[in-house]
Write a structure and sequence with these properties.
- This protein is mostly helical and 469 residues long.
- The chain has three domains: 37-186, no CATH class; 193-334, no CATH class; 360-460, no CATH class.
- Helices cover 53% and strands 4% of the residues.
- The chain has 19 helices and four strands.
- The chain has helices at residues 9-21, 57-72, 78-84, 97-115, 121-135, 149-162, 168-182, 193-206, 218-222, 248-265, 268-273, 280-301, 307-334, 360-367, 369-372, 384-395, 413-430, 438-446, 454-460, and strands spanning 4-6, 34-36, 228-234, 241-245.
- It has a two-stranded antiparallel ribbon.
- It is elongated, with a radius of gyration of 37 Å.
- The two termini are 60 Å apart.
Length: 469
């Protein structure tokens, strides 16, 4: 098992403070400020060959070379001499590196020769070499990097170039596994994850998730951290998951695309088309207030970074919403409203002629929703007097009372039909002796209200709208 140590006192103190205060979701430590010990590698089925290392000249030379290296260490090179000057250094900390390097190389050789002709030979060998390379631990570049990992890479290069059992056409691809590991100094440092997190949190603070338009999405985006590429791979030998950190540029592009997608798909025009815009005036006030809040945020911060891009999109969206809602409200105010007929007073009754077992209050309570909810023109679907007439006519048998008109706009028909279907479903479970009575529940709407065709209601009776009443 690896042991990790922070060798820079300032970094250690800063890290401890952040973790104790809980003011960071994620943190990282620069490679120059930490060390990680080597660890043994495990490979199922592997055993050293009989007579090792005296089985062949190559293996004898392998062991002899590593033993000579250990005798010279840490005075073997300029970098490792610096290691001996570090506080707390002891050569004993690296005891076992000779056997570890030999064993890890021999395991790799065994795996390569075993898997070289299999279907997934490259993926299998790549995963093990990645696992083995990581097992050498970590040391800062200024002291030479992980101890003996360079020797491991050299041994693999010789194996891939010269072993007779490796097909020539596969040598180049095998060498491509080592090249990025051996040239670690040339690697471009990955993006700073803390900067990416800060960029994402800025976007969360700018986008108007507090609006009723978007509030249902806030938990989803607040609990995400989209700083990794989509493809996550798991090493079959170490079990470690690995993902590439995206660049700041890519994250900003993602956030701009997400902002655009949300604004295009969620707006008053979409609500109106779906029959969900029940109170345009209320929505207009909400838009005005949040747009002003956006302006005030911009005044305080004067965005000069990527936030300016989000803000421009939001400004355009708010302006469009205000204009659309103003036009819609004006059109609704000018539109003819369904005339409500003068309603005569119904007579009291006790017997439910529609369904004797059903209490009258059950029907009244269910259809009272039509008096409590409003159409998109701002008026209720029924007045309380109209509801009383409907109940007396349909359930009290008072056929002399007039048929009523429901106040609704285009796009709201299914809301009303489905309310009657819900009444049918509830009644069949509680009051009806069998379920072969759908027709009379359809007739509750078609016989007691104007402009509702039997075929229209029957065809759409059980179709659930996006948002029922």
């Amino acid at each position: 098992m690896h042991q990790i140590g922070i060798i820079n006192p300032k970094t250690a103190a800063s890290l401890a403070e952040k973790l104790q205060c809980g003011d960071t979701k994620i943190t990282h430590v620069d490679g120059e400020d930490m060390m990680m010990s080597f660890a043994e590698t495990v490979l199922e089925g592997f055993e050293l060959p009989p007579g090792f290392p005296d089985c062949c000249n190559f293996h004898t030379g392998l062991v002899t070379g590593m033993e000579e290296f250990w005798k010279r260490f840490p005075n073997c090179c300029e970098n490792h001499i610096r290691l001996s000057e570090m506080a707390g250094f002891s050569k004993d900390q690296y005891a076992g590196i000779v056997q570890k390097t030999i064993t890890t190389y021999m395991q790799t050789e065994y795996l390569v020769l075993k898997k070289i002709n299999s279907k997934e030979w490259f993926e299998d060998i790549s995963d093990f070499i990645e696992y083995a390379d990581f097992s050498f631990g970590h040391m800062p570049r200024r002291v030479g990097g992980p101890l003996a990992v360079g020797t491991y890479h050299q041994q693999l290069t010789g194996l891939f170039n010269h072993h007779s059992e490796i097909p020539d056409k596969k040598r180049t691809k095998l060498l491509s596994i080592i090249e990025p590991l051996a040239n670690d100094k040339k690697k471009k440092p990955p993006p700073d994850p803390l900067r990416l997190i800060a960029t994402y949190e800025k976007w969360l603070g700018i986008f108007p998730f507090s609006m009723s338009y978007f509030s249902h999405l806030q938990p989803y985006f607040a609990n995400r951290l989209p700083i990794l590429e989509k493809e996550i791979t798991v090493n079959r030998y170490s079990g470690m998951a690995r993902g590439k950190i995206i660049s700041t540029k890519k994250l900003i592009e993602y956030l701009l695309d997400t902002t655009n997608m949300l604004l295009v798909e969620i707006n008053a025009a979409v609500f109106q088309k779906k029959g969900l815009l029940t109170d345009p005036e209320e929505k207009r006030m909400e838009v005005i207030i949040h747009d002003r809040e956006r302006e005030l945020k911009q005044l305080r911060r004067d965005f000069t970074d990527e936030r300016a891009g989000y803000d421009r999109m939001l400004k355009t969206w708010f302006e469009g919403e205000r204009h659309f809602l103003e036009l819609l409200i004006a059109a609704l105010q000018q539109a003819p409203v369904t005339q409500v007929k003068e309603v005569p007073a119904p007579k009291p009754f006790e017997v439910n002629v529609f369904c004797e077992k059903m209490p009258i209050d059950n029907a009244t309570k269910h259809f009272k929703l039509l008096t409590e909810r409003k159409s998109s023109n701002g008026k209720p679907f029924l007045t309380s007097d109209q509801l009383d007439v409907f109940i007396a006519r349909a359930f009290g048998g008072q056929k002399g009372l007039p048929v009523q008109s429901i106040n609704f706009r285009r796009g709201e028909t299914q809301l009303i039909i489905y309310l009657f279907y819900q009444f049918y479903e509830s009644s069949v479970r509680q009051w009806e002796s069998n379920g072969q009575c759908r027709h009379k529940y359809i007739a509750l709407l078609t016989d007691h209200f104007e402009n509702w065709g039997e075929r229209q209601v029957r065809t759409n009776f059980n179709k659930r709208p996006t948002t029922p009443l």
